Fold this protein.
Amino acid sequence: MPKRDGHIPGVPSFADTSQPDPDAAADFYGGLFGWELENVLPPDSPGKYFVGRIRGGDVGAIGSIGEGEPPTATWRTYIWVESADETAANVREAGGRVIAEPLDVMPDAGRTAVFADPEGAVFRVWQAYRNKGWQIVNEPGSVTMTTLNTRNADVAKRFYNSVFGWDTLTLEDGVEMWTLAGYGDYLEREDPHQRKRLAEGGAPEGFEDVVGRINPIPGDQPDVPAHWSVTFAVDDANAIAKKAADLGGKVIAPPFDARWLRITVIEDPQGATFAASQYVPENKDLGTSSGADAGAS
């Protein structure tokens, strides 16, 4: 697939992980996904920020935990916006919380801010200057889905519709997806055959506008807070689970089959969790597991 050069407002556009030991995390993710990693911060910086690339295109990043941030490893989702400052005002008006006010990064990379939705799920926004977010997605080793794990979908729907204009699409098996009107038209300009491929694969009308997923947190997981999670595309979920364990990670959910997919949930050596998903066309008629992503962060 061609490299992307930017996104449109309201689309998840990047993900990174904050880690107590970013060098060790770079070894893990480089070994797991084959990322080429570059520390883009100056040598005299107090922390590190490794950008991971596949075929020279940005797919994610690994950074030190910043001052004042929780000392736990986690994956973080960024949503593309035209103005981080205007989005901060919209978040407040919609009932969310501004955790970190907008600020410029490095100083010409972009402008970011940290927010929490009404249920407490934390996300970030990205107002691009030089850095255009993900350049490669939906390929093995890159992000294929971002998911809001929530206990109150109705409140979440009102909030994210107000802030980003998202609607929802309910699939046959009851799974709900976030959609953004016009996103399919935007993608079609770069990939004119996308709608045709989706239709041939059995995707429902409107699937081309999907920008994420809503996942209900199961009632038997009362200690799991609302949060955003990431899923990486992989060629072989079984092989990735084994490799993650060999590299010091932990398999939280062994590979299992779902509709269209084979999925595993992994915890890296420092505690950040994520899902890995293999596309399996033969699974097109299977149901899905409602809690597949509930533990990922």
Summary: The chain has two domains: 12-128, 143-283. Helices lie at 22-33, 84-93, 153-164, 183-190, 194-200, 237-246. The chain has six helices and 16 strands. Residues 143-283 form a domain with the 2,3-Dihydroxybiphenyl 1,2-Dioxygenase; domain 1 fold (CATH 3.10.180.10).
